[in-house]
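Progress note, sequence design subtask.
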């Protein structure tokens, strides 16, 4: 009887086996029984437990997947979906940098990818072109390969590497990068238990779609890749990247950039870039105050200690919002890409492209202005720090202090690249444009000029601020050119007033609004003159040269704002400028 009872009890070995977790090797063996192989369970495991693929028991699992599935020519065993699952598993394992040896293991496995698979990639998604049907098919395999390469090589890919992946097909390479940015997340299916097994019932399992957002380093890496598509060394360097383009064939280079511009406009790449970077860098600019920190002026408990705590909290928010060097470099690469498209694509598409950036996308409110706000915060912080150090060390060490504190070159380059794009977008823009009106009301010049030591230190930034305000017409000191409202008693007169206001496009009401704009222009010009006076004579001469002669950027030199800036740079209002101000 005792033997009978003991035999009915589960042994410790059976209990341990029931509680044990399925290994990747067991799951792979099970998936190979289906035709084609179903790697759903392995993809889910790679997302939740990537370390299981590189431990001692599963050290050969990645190599087996590459040999048996990725390099397999038999479609009945490994079709396109199976190969995508293999690439997803490798990418998920390489994504977690906290797993020791994971990326090294993936890099080792990639060395065994056969040449057949490279031909398979090109055959499935290659041969694309503008206006062809192939360009409408998503390059899923190439996007998966780009994700994998970015992660296992520590987000240090170059544009030349992407072109090598696509066999020098620039259209396919650009669509691959755009696709990764557009997706913003990876998709996978996992098995989820809906009902547990019971008496007389079986358990129910279902496939569920799960998403995982791309990590910030991946988004910044893809942004840096864009610059190379419009960089001349990518086309002209003697590296065999493109043998069809000779060293001096500028027309062919311009044609290539025109094709890239067509893809940019068709795919709304500018909009996607603005939204992707905004979600990664600017979606949580400032945290809202918690309920426990709320107070009002009648609170008797409000004292100096609470004031100090609030100041410390504001400082922490400011420091948390500052961008690092990698952020500035990635955003600078995006702005360089946008500027190079305008510079190299040819004048026949310049107007369409400027209008697209200014009015058809969220580039200005979602990327340019938030980024410049971060630059302003960083510049003000550096300026205060430089002033503090100068006061402590004395004026004798002022030059050394400025070089050590104010020369944040990643910040300077990023701010300059953003201003250049704004200059291009605002050139010859009609004053009725809503975004141009928004720009004039959110002009970053006044905020940047508050960091006067920083701007005076970098005269190139000051030159760009001058050009930006010239193109926006923000320094028009006259009021005679602005139509006054008409006051008629009949209905037609009222309608005429609305038309006049719409035609002016300013949204201000008559002479009072024009006076406010003229006063603001005068105040802004005064602040610019104060910063200009802080510069050395050599720096002032460089600013004058850029504003008056430089042709690298489009500038409206036939406007009243240009006259005002030129007069300020020459040392003040001349007789002609005074007569212009007073309507003479």
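Output:
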């Amino acid at each position: 009887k005792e033997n009978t009872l003991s035999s009915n009890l589960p042994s410790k070995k059976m209990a341990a086996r029931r509680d044990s977790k399925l290994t990747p090797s067991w799951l792979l063996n099970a998936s190979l029984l289906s035709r084609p192989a179903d790697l759903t369970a392995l993809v889910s495991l790679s997302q939740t437990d990537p370390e299981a693929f590189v431990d001692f028991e599963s050290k050969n699992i990645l190599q087996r997947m590459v040999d048996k599935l990725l390099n397999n020519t038999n479609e009945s065993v490994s079709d396109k979906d199976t190969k995508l699952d293999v690439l997803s598993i490798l990418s998920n394992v390489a994504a977690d940098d906290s797993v020791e040896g994971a990326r090294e293991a993936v890099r080792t496995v990639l060395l065994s990818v056969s040449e057949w698979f490279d031909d398979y990639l090109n055959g499935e998604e290659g041969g694309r072109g503008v206006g062809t049907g192939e360009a409408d098919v998503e390059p899923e395999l190439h996007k998966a390969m780009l994700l994998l390469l970015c992660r296992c090589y520590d987000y240090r890919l170059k544009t030349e590497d992407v072109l090598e992946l696509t066999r020098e097909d620039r259209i396919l390479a650009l669509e691959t990068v755009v696709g990764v940015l557009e997706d913003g997340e990876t998709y996978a299916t996992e098995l989820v238990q809906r009902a547990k097994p019971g008496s007389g019932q079986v358990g129910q399992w279902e496939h569920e779609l799960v998403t995982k957002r791309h990590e910030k380093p991946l988004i910044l890496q893809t942004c840096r890749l864009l610059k190379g598509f419009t960089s001349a060394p990518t086309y002209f360097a003697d590296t065999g990247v493109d043998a069809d383009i000779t060293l001096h064939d500028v027309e062919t280079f311009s044609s290539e950039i025109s094709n890239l511009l067509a893809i940019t406009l068709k795919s709304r790449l500018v909009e996607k870039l603005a939204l992707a970077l905004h979600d990664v860098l600017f979606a949580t600019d400032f945290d809202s105050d918690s309920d426990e920190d709320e107070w009002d002026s009648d609170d008797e408990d409000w004292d100096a200690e609470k004031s100090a705590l609030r100041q410390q909290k504001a400082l922490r928010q400011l420091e948390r919002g500052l961008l690092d060097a990698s952020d500035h470099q990635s955003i600078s690469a995006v702005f360089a890409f946008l500027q190079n498209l305008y510079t190299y694509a040819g004048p026949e598409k310049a107007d369409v492209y400027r209008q697209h950036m200014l009015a058809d996308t969220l580039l200005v409110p979602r990327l340019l202005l938030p980024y410049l706000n971060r630059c302003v915060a960083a510049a003000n912080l550096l300026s205060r720090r430089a002033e503090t150090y100068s006061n402590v060390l004395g004026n004798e060490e002022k030059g050394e202090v400025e070089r050590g504190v104010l020369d944040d070159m990643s910040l300077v380059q990023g701010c300059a690249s953003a201003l250049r794009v704004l200059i291009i977008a605002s050139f010859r823009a009609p004053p009725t444009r809503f975004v141009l009106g928004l720009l004039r009301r959110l002009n970053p010049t006044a905020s940047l000029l508050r960091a006067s030591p920083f701007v005076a230190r970098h005269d190139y930034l000051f030159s760009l601020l001058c050009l930006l305000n010239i193109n926006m017409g923000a320094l028009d000191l006259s009021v005679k050119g602005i139509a006054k409202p008409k006051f008629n008693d009949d209905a037609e007169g009222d309608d005429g007033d609305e038309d006049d206001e719409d035609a002016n496009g300013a949204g201000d009401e008559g002479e009072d609004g024009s006076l406010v704009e003229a006063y603001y222009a005068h105040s802004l010009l005064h602040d610019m003159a104060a910063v200009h006076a802080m510069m050395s004579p050599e720096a002032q001469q460089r600013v004058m040269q850029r504003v008056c002669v430089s042709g690298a950027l489009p500038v409206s030199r036939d406007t009243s704002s240009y006259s005002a800036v030129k007069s300020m740079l020459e040392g003040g209002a001349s007789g002609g400028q005074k007569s212009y101000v007073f309507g003479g």
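Strands lie at 185-195, 204-213. Work on this subtask will continue into the next period as scheduled.
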